[in-house]
Amino acid sequence: MSDHVLELRRVSKVYGTGPTEVQALRGVDLSVEAGAMVAVMGPSGSGKSSLLTIAGSLEDPTSGEVLVGGAAVSGMSRNERARLRRRYIGYVFQDFNLLPGLTAAENVALPLELDGVAARKARTAGMAALDGLGLADRADRFPDELSGGERQRVAIARAVVGQRRLLLADEPSGALDSVNGEAVMRLMHAACKRGVAAVVVTHDAQLASWADRVVFLRDGRVADQTMPPPGPESLLASGPGQ
Amino acid sequence: MSVRHALLALLTEGPKYGLQLREEFVARTGEVWPLNVGQVYTTLQRLERDGLVESDDTADAGPQKGFRITPEGEHELAGWLRTPPDLTSPPRDELVIKVLVALRVPGIDVHEVIQVHRRYVVELMQQWTRLKDDEAEFDLGLALVVDAELFRLDSVIRWLDAADGRLKRAAAEPAAPVPALMPRLRRRVGVRR
Known about the structure:
heterodimer
């Protein structure tokens, strides 16, 4: 039994057939262990978004295998997959995807309630997640009463509420400015330190640099990846240019 | 980095000793820029010679000699802060030259060359970000220094990405011309030597 929270084995994805066929992923291998953050970088059309939707069991690969928490997704029934997505996987999207008619606390508690958790218990867990992200005083606000940075923090609280083990993020800082973008990455990084595994798809090198490992996709293949970086003390050896 | 002006800035807070100036300089630049005490005293002597600082007349040179900024020093500092550094002419960037050269060498895949550099720069950015995560949250000076470095490296990545995309598009077009080894920039914008 591996400690990989997510494992993609030789995953390929083809959209369309004949002349309109597009090969989005070509034999991608990717493993993410508990507590690790992996960033996936690549130009538009390199397969980043397909990789994330397949990792989140939102769509099936054409070939290859996806294991989440050690279990093959292909062997699961529709209900089992839905349960996996509700209980195990949290999603953070570029445009937050909060429900406008629900307060921050209700948005965060929603995945638990959908999973059958009693409303009061779900609300308590939701409040704990909001509190952890410094948003306790915003719990009763509706999304349109929150700033962009606050909305994305609510989205992250919703993604990590309960016992989620896998966090999948697509350009999570979206259109936020760099200070708010950094705050978003700090929160995701903190979730990883608590043992959550995360995959962040981004074209932004500053966001990607928060990851333990950066994987470069090109034409649907893993073209390259970073090596574990040495400690920051190596940066402090050189002096100022005079 | 102007040590001269950094020392003048520290002296606007009041008279200080050489050793104290060194410690405050290092602390406020997030300890990213080490500075030895010899550099501090040499710089102070020059500032004094130019009339920008003055020292205690009585004390001998050494750790107990105090320095303060003069009105001329304040004027010099205010002028320096508002003078933009020279960013007008593009430097001869070694990375740009390597990519231009790679295009002309048979058997070299320019996209692979670009990726080698991209990976290296991202690894460097990971180190800076780790420093920011570990230490800069409560050290404003360090956070600003690290941000500056991350934005500089980020601009390198953006250029590599743009070059990658531009070369890919050019290769898809018929008979894409191979660019000159050093484009004729100098005449147009005056490349710094």
